[in-house]
Every structure is written in structure tokens, then in C-alpha cells.
Amino acid sequence: MADKIKVTLKRSVSGSTKDQRATVAALGLKRRGRSRILPNSDATKGAIRKVSHLLTWEEIEQ
User: Fold this and answer.
1) Does the global pTM surpass 0.85?
2) Which domains does the chain have, with CATH numbers?
3) pLDDT band for position 2 (50/70/90)?
């Protein structure tokens, strides 16, 4: 299992619900094309699953 997850916002949050926008903000993503490296935890995976149609993600070793 990888230590970290790299998350990239691929689609705009325009037209998304307030809940989805809040989830993207909680992941630390502000603009399309930006990436964040986050811990590989159940909370992070749940947030990614909630807005998976807006994101791409990959597990990385660090």
C-alpha cells in the first residue's frame, strides 16, 4: 500500500453542488489542473470517492 495519494482536479466545480465544492476545498484543491499530495487514509479515500467524477488520483511511494 502506498503512503500518499496524488489528487488532481480535472474538471471545474462550476455546476457542482455545495457539498461537492466543500469536499474539493477540503482536499485542498482550488483550481482546475492543480494537484495535492495527501495521506493515504480512509477519510481521504472517502472524499475522493465522493467527487471522483471531478478528479484523477494515483498512489505514490514517498
Assistant:
1) yes
2) 4-60 (3.30.1390.20)
3) confident
Using CA atoms of 30, 27, 62, 35 in order, give the dihedral in degrees to the nearest 10: -20
Q: Which three cell numbers stand for residue 25?
A: 476545498
Backbone angles phi, psi at 42, to 5 degrees: -65, -35
SS (H, E, C) 11-55: CCCCCCCHHHHHHHHHCCCCCCCCEEEEECCHHHHHHHHHCCCCE
The stretch 17-42 carries a mean pLDDT of 96
The helix/strand/coil state of 7 is strand
